[in-house]
Amino acid sequence: MNQQILINDDIHYNETRQCLIFTAMVSGMLVSCVIATSLTKEQALTHFKAHQFDYEMQAEQRIEDEAYSAQGEIELVQL
């Protein structure tokens, strides 16, 4: 586990973008981690809770790889 990356427990569903978003603190900066999904809000949140550890590991790896989108976000692959 990278001590410079702290995953926040602030998952929410963005209706407009149809995605799940949580944040990570990376060396003092807040970074949004985004998971695009076709699931409903309730299904998406339930899915995230079942796979939270995997999504957090994916986010950490992508942050370490500096795989930021043009918007400065980390885009994750839905499991």
From TrEMBL:
Extract the Pfam families matched here: DUF1488 (PF07369)
**Ranges annotated as spanning the membrane:** 20-39
**Keywords associated with the record:** Membrane, Transmembrane, Transmembrane helix
State the InterPro entries in the record: DUF1488, Shew3726-like_sf
- This protein's source sits in the domain of life called Bacteria
Name of the featured protein:
DUF1488 domain-containing protein
Protein species of origin: Pseudoalteromonas rubra
Native organism taxonomy: Bacteria, Pseudomonadati, Pseudomonadota, Gammaproteobacteria, Alteromonadales
